[in-house]
Amino acid sequence: MIREAALFLVVLFAATTSWAAEPDGGVPTKAPAPDTTLERYRTPLEALTERPIGEASRAVRFDWRRSRIGFGVLGSSVVELNNFSSARIGGYVRKALGSFMLEGAVSYVHTWGSFATQQLSLTPYRQFARPSRLEVDVNLSYALAEGVVTPRVSFIPPAELVFSVTAGVRYLYYFGSLTGVPAIEVLGALFNPAISDREADNLEGQRLPGMQIARTRYSVLTGFQLDLYLRPGIAVTPRVLLGLPVFSGVPGSGLTFWWELSLGVGAAL
To answer: 262 versus 255: which is more confidently predicted?
Structure first.
């Protein structure tokens, strides 16, 4: 009797264990297949720590790189470190070339004297300077940094600000300097970095009292500029340039380093 009761308990325990392991009636359950839908979008943690997450995008207030052409007016003050004063006014045309900006400009420069130059003219001494003239510039700028800025004044909308380094070459033309010069010499004067003696004689009537004309025809400039673009394409460009003494070896050049502060206002289409 005791043996039969023990056998009954063993059979009951075995049956209970089998039902607990196979709740679906004795059919073994199969593990679910892994979901690989998002597998291609997953990136290992090691890869994320070795490279930036995401991609930086450019500001979209105004994409100046897509502009076909830009134009405007400019004005500047030339600081030649002498007692004469000069002011420039003119216009420019621009074309974006990737992160570069190519610019051509034509300006009229007016030069006038001061009380110091009048006093200097009463002595045998002269000071190197340049009389009123026409200037043609070709500049190339490269964008170093840019982004969207929000002005503190509320009525001015957010704008695109571009900080660039710029360099260029300037050609100086003096009115009446080529009067009476043969045509073959006129062509040579376009490429000669120095003003000839005949040109200097023609400019004697334009020379201000106390002035010794600097005889360089070309100037090389470099500096920095800020381009502030407002929608739908208004451009404001303050710029500071330094004149380099590249042609200081020209006899009678006189000037070495000098500064120019300019402001341009225009549009980019």
So the answer is: 262
Which pLDDT does position 14 carry in this prediction?
54
The domain spans of the chain are 64-268
> Of 41-50, 92-101, 236-245, where does mean pLDDT reach its minimum?
41-50
Structure tokens at 77: 């003050």
Q: To 5 degrees, how large is the angle CA 193–CA 195–CA 199?
A: 150
Q: pLDDT for 1-42, tens place per residue?
A: 555 555 555 555 555 555 444 455 555 566 677 777 777 777
Q: Are 135 and 218 in contact (CB under 8 A)?
A: no
Cα–Cα nearest to 199, from 110, 133, 136: 133
Write the CA distances from 140 to 98, 118, 215, 216, 237, integer angstroms.
Answer: 12, 39, 25, 22, 14
The span from the CA of 167 to the CA of 246, in Å, is: 13
pLDDT band at 223 (very low <50, low <70, confident <90, very high): very high
Half-sphere exposure of 234 (CA within 13 A, CB side): 7
Q: What is the pLDDT of residue 39?
A: 75
What dotted CATH number matches 64-268?
2.40.160.20
- 10 Å CB burial of residue 213 (0-12, 13-18, 19+) is buried
Q: What pTM, to 2 d.p., does this model score? A: 0.75
Contact 95, 140 (CB under 8 A): no
The SS3 of residue 61 is coil
